[in-house]
């Protein structure tokens, strides 16, 4: 039986992610997660752990045994953790090199719920058809690892890459869309942020968002805002915005 409600406060117990969390009073953590628990963390009997399916089911337990690359966990409590409000969506233009996984990592730790890779006009990086799966795998792996680090029972969704036209279509279901732009006059701090619904943050590439993209997003109801006097990297701007939004909603 699972209890519905917010996730219990993190107590330092490590989090392990399984594709499916079985029912019962004892569960097994094996495979890569088990090896990490036993060989890296050196967990032993009696230590507290958490296990999740990454979709909101969170199990609190204690280690019964750690042998080989397998952890046996005694289930102490189960929780059905609801999705947080408001939902945060990051539309992230494809950055250069490894800055994409870095952007995903930081955004995940700061509460993003959905990440949309955006093929903006000025993106230096282009995901050709034969590289989309590889790029998505890196971003999704970063989201999973960061969720474990942050003890999050919900791993953010990383969607397939979208064009500007597709992003505009996505915005039809968004309650507030913010386009980060260094030339915007309105600071993010002056925007009224809803306590529920969906809030999207659009971050451009290293070369910036084009005037045409800004106009198209505004026509779809988006607001251009600036974070502050400094110009942040594309890999960190989204995380900074999410932190500012969380401070006014989820962390308040």
Automatic annotation (TrEMBL):
Enzyme Commission no: 2.1.1.193
Coiled-coil portions: none
An example Gene Ontology molecular-function term: rRNA (uridine-N3-)-methyltransferase activity
UniProt keyword list: Cytoplasm, Methyltransferase, rRNA processing, S-adenosyl-L-methionine, Transferase
Domain Ribosomal RNA small subunit methyltransferase E PUA-like: from-to ranges: 31-75
InterPro entries registered for this protein in UniProt: Alpha/beta_knot_MTases (IPR029028), PUA-like_sf (IPR015947), RsmE (IPR006700), RsmE_MTase_dom (IPR046886), RsmE_PUA-like (IPR046887), tRNA_m1G_MTases_N (IPR029026)
Family indicated by similarity: Belongs to the RNA methyltransferase RsmE family.
Stated name of the protein: Ribosomal RNA small subunit methyltransferase E
């Amino acid at each position: 039986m699972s209890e519905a409600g917010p996730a219990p406060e993190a107590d330092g117990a490590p989090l392990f992610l399984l594709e499916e969390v079985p029912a019962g009073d004892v569960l097994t953590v094996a495979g890569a997660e088990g090896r990490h628990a036993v060989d890296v963390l050196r967990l032993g009997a009696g230590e507290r752990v958490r296990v999740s399916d990454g979709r909101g089911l969170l199990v609190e337990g204690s280690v019964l045994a750690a042998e080989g690359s397998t952890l046996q966990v005694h289930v102490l409590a189960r929780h059905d953790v609801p999705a947080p409000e408001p939902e945060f969506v990051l539309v992230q233009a494809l950055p250069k090199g490894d800055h994409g996984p870095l952007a995903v990592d930081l955004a995940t730790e700061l509460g993003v719920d959905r990440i949309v890779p955006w093929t903006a006009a000025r993106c230096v990086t282009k995901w050709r058809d034969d590289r989309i799966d590889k790029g998505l795998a890196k971003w999704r792996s970063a989201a999973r690892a960061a969720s474990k680090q942050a003890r999050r029972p919900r791993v953010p969704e990383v969607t397939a890459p979208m064009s500007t036209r597709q992003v505009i279509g996505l915005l039809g279901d968004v309650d507030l869309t913010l386009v980060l732009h260094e030339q915007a006059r309105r600071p993010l701090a002056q925007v009224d942020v809803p306590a529920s619904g969906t809030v999207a943050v659009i971050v451009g590439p290293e070369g910036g968002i084009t005037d045409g993209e800004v106009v198209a997003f505004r026509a779809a109801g988006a607001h251009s805002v600036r974070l502050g006097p400094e110009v942040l990297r594309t890999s960190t701007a989204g995380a900074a915005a999410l932190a500012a939004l969380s401070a006014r909603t989820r962390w308040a």
